[in-house]
Write a structure and sequence with these properties.
mainly beta, four-stranded antiparallel sheet, about 240 residues, about 10% helix, 14 strands
């Protein structure tokens, strides 16, 4: 129906010359369907009035409660199992525009980008960028630990900057460090904080060395982390 051959599209895409065809098809589909992209990434070519969408990339969106998570991956190769590399491997500064305003976090860097629908970033081939769009700014994590027999019970809660805000679901990464300062990966885990709250039970082991163990809770969306001490005495191991 396009009245032209497009069998060489993969070649155009690899060489970075596919934009005229891609723009024509995109405009046609938008006109017929009335749809607009939820995430638009524009690379400035020679100025703010001349730009095109980020090439050789894919965007994935995921919703958890009232939060939205967006992943962007710029492909360094035609296919992951192929030996053909994209011709343009340069970093690409670009503007990312979301369909709505939200409190945006750069998840890889643990950076708050503000309440907005438009941010600037640089995209590298083969490096995924992750963004969290939340209905509120996160101020911190309330964390408390209490002993329960031979184990510890951890209580945590996401604290919004606006105390009146309704907290949505979050994912929290828990890790443990022993008194010698060594991370104990066998004790690490991810927990779903429904409504921003979670409770988790930790058993350090009957032979856990005495001293101050430390548990860290990091909110995956914002990168905010808090710690709590887990004191272990020789007497408590008996």
């Amino acid at each position: 129906f396009l009245n032209m051959l497009c069998r060489d599209y993969q070649i155009w895409r690899t060489l970075g010359t596919e934009m005229p065809f891609r723009r024509a098809v995109g405009n046609l589909l938008a006109e017929v369907s009335g749809l607009a992209p939820e995430v638009d990434i524009q690379v400035e070519v020679r100025g703010p009035d001349e730009s095109h969408r980020l090439q050789s990339s894919e965007i994935r969106r995921y919703t958890l409660g009232d939060g939205e998570y967006v992943g962007v991956l710029r492909h360094p190769k035609l296919r992951p199992d192929d030996s053909i590399w994209m011709a343009d491997q340069r970093p690409k500064p670009a503007w990312v525009t979301f369909a709505r305003e939200a409190h945006i976090y750069d998840m890889r860097r643990g950076m708050y980008r503000g309440f907005t629908n438009r941010i600037e970033d640089v995209f590298y081939p083969g490096r995924a960028e992750l963004y969290a769009l939340l209905p509120y700014e996160v101020a911190g994590i309330a964390l408390a630990a209490a002993r329960d027999g031979q184990a510890f019970v951890i209580h945590g809660a996401i604290e919004p900057q606006d105390s009146a805000a309704t907290v949505t679901d979050h994912v929290v990464h828990l890790r443990v460090r022993d008194p010698q300062g060594r991370d104990r990966p066998e004790l690490a885990r991810n927990v779903l904080a429904k409504g921003g709250r979670f409770e988790e039970r930790f058993f350090l082991g009957y032979n856990a060395s005495g001293g101050a163990w430390t548990l860290y809770a990091r909110d995956a969306a914002t990168g905010i982390e808090r710690g709590a001490f887990l004191p272990v005495s020789t007497a408590s191991r008996r």
